[in-house]
Design goal:
Order of helices and strands: HHHH
Strand content: under 5%
Distance between the termini: 40 Å
Shape: flat
Largest sheet: none
Helix content: over 70%
Length: about 100
């Protein structure tokens, strides 16, 4: 077993929770203190969701099989058409299930 006692584990969990909370509210606190956001900063902040999504999807596309690539391509095409993520999720899921069951292993 480990040399950590239950008290140490609880302290580590609490410290991790505090660090997570502080990083989540830090951006809000910093931006609420600023009265005017420069256009370049606003453009950078608007690009964050696309960057995060890319970091989640790119490894799956690269490391996944053809079923994953087909599902991601179908979800991308549907995402360009509809604003809601629900059709993307449904079609991506359906494509990967059909590809895994019928065509590609």
């Amino acid at each position: 077993m480990s040399n950590f006692t239950d008290d140490h584990i609880v302290l580590v969990i609490l410290a991790a929770a505090l660090a997570t909370y502080m990083t989540r509210i830090a951006g809000y606190l910093l931006l609420s203190a600023v009265s005017h956001i420069p256009p370049r900063v606003e453009a950078a902040l608007n690009a964050i969701p696309a960057a995060v999504l890319t970091t989640l999807v790119a490894p799956a596309f690269y490391a996944g099989g053809w079923d994953t690539k087909l599902a991601l391509a179908a979800a991308l095409l549907l995402g360009l058409r509809y604003a809601s993520p629900l059709p993307m999720i449904a079609v991506g899921w359906a494509v990967v299930m059909i590809a895994r069951y019928f065509v590609i292993t």
